[in-house]
Amino acid sequence: MRYLLALTFSISLLCSVSAQKKAINIPHLWESYSFYPKMVPGFNFMNDGKHYTVLENASIVQYDLTSGNKTNIIYSASDFNFSDYTFSKDEQKIVLEVNREQIYRRSSKANFFVWDRTREELTEVSKSGKQRYATLNDQADKIAFVRNNNLFYRDLKSNKEIQITKDGLNNSIINGATDWVYEEEFAMSRAFFWSPEGDKVAFLKFDETAVKEFTYTSYNKGLYPIYTTFKYPKAGETNATVSVHVYHLSSDKTVAVEVKGDEDQYIPRIKWVNNDNLCVTQMNRHQNKLSLLNANPVNGKTTLLLEEKNDYFIDIHDNLTFLDDASFIWTSDRDGFNHIYLHKEDGTIQKQLTKGPYDVTKFYGFDAKNQIVYFQAAAEGAINRGIYKVALKDGKMKALHQDTGVNEAQFSRTFDYYVNDFSKAANPPTFKVYETSKNKLVRTIEDNQDLNKKMEEFDLGSIEFFDLYNSDSVQLHAWMIKPSDFDPSKKYPLFMYVYGGPGRQTVMNEWGGQNYMWFQMLAQQGYIVVSVDNRGTDARGEEFRKSTYMNLGKKETIDQIEAARLLGQKSFIDADRIGIFGWSFGGYLSTACLAKGADVFKMAIAVAPVINWKWYDTIYTERFMRTPQENNAGYEDNSPINFAGLIKGKYLLVHGMADDNVHFQNAAEMARALVSKNIPFDEAYYPNKNHGIYGGYTRSHLYHKMTDFITKNL
What we know:
There is one protein chain. By secondary structure, the protein is mainly beta. The relative contact order is 0.10.
């Protein structure tokens, strides 16, 4: 087959600069954070659609979105150090979070209080231990929460605490919260939901008794380390049994919802349609069949609302939106690209609202007053994102964004205004407020001009976007950073950055953050840096994204190796000095590339890599691979642990020892395999650090380590 390297378009985003300009160093990046842009956090919009609130010095301060002026101090507590807050539906009560303790990525526990703005009274939610997910009903007269794996609520009028479930037990039964794997892979941690009239609570119960446990170790200078043990279902192993229940406050009775299907199934979402109808999302373990079930909360009976089947897998999302007439909006890959559909009350499709050879990448919401859907899409190419709207009536799609790059939006609750977060590859983000109906600029909140000016002081190279073609003639997107004094007559070492996992991209026309500036630092030191999005990455339709099914990592590794070979043919690349670096899935790929591309790569850095897919969790791994019992060859042929003996180049293996996600087991087993083959390697292990490996000087230490390794070995 042909091997082509085609520069289909090249955007020079930064010009070469004189040698007098400054050099970047690690302390700039990970100690003083000199290149960190000013960010505008997520907005807590008020009901009026014009104001928002922020937490400032233990006070909730209200601002006018259109002017930026401070208009009110809603709540202040000089001696009450709360870290987060949420308003009731009518904004007359505020739930305050105090002494938060993080559990995993999305889960935490804290002490919660309710502030009544009208009566100016503060009520402690519970005095019997920290709670999770304290949530008011719409009427703001009751608040539900999870404590010790049981579900409770407090009646704020009588001030009585009522226990809904009593069988909760650590590492056994969970009521109203999710287990580890649902939290990580379905992005779901709270698993209880008030009915619209506040007289019922729907919740999930997890029975994880049969799920095997995993333990990681933390160190605290004591005589003995601390062991954290939790339920973690690895690929092919037993999952928790999940059931749906509805608690009725008036009768103090709980109704079990009938969710018939495979014995081994997932229930990744539940959502109230109205007070008399609960929608339950059901998936088979293979995750290629999804059903939306209408459940009667009184008797627990269910009927089928919608069913989807897929040759590969179906991704879970939060785009399901019910309209007042019980029709609903849903997004689906059914035509080969992710698009938005309007369904009738009976589940049949009424209208496809978006259509074309592009993916809808985010669903922002539905403006019921004006019957308009707002969303983000990759309609200007996979490396870009735009903000769009489509009206239910005429189905006409219209762009709202002004510039090509990556546009994000946060809409006010009335959809009268939105904040456009925009960036492109060499330019930090800007945040601008627009009036939605006329799409008129109201004001600029932040343009990061100070950072732009600071960057002019440093010796930065250009970044170019280009395309290349693999041996199957599949087009792959890529970017390249060259030194500012690039000389095409010279040969440069090549350093490749990869993630490459399902549904993600590294090749985006957006601000690349701290890693982008580290790559610029490497370019200053004479390296050319490249990133390539292999098959399986996002925003190019279903066939491209799901083409790695049943052989996760195979085509991805081939694409990265072939890309390295193609780039090595360029006159300015030294083909004998090619290295690769990745984190998490990227660490898996960098390891696989060093083994299977031993004749191509001189070195690799793998941070927190999966080394054997059998050691990763059920939901993620089986979504793409099915179980090891069904697809043993897919697991064995694509796990680097089985190819450790092929490694010839220099290898740096990095892992956090308290990684609850990709377990330190992966690094330990890889080290053991390398030692058994008498293959030399370098390693860096970080005690008490999770998958992110951060905190204090940790990142600085890590990037010093990686930079030194690159300098010595590439």
